[in-house]
Amino acid sequence: MAIDKIGGVSNISAPLKSREITPKTNKTIKKDSIEISPEGKKAAEIANYTKVLESTPNIRTELVNNIKNKINSGSYDFNDINILTKTANKITSSFLK
Question: CB burial class (10 A; 0-12, 13-18, 19+) of residue 76?
Answer without folding.
Answer: middle
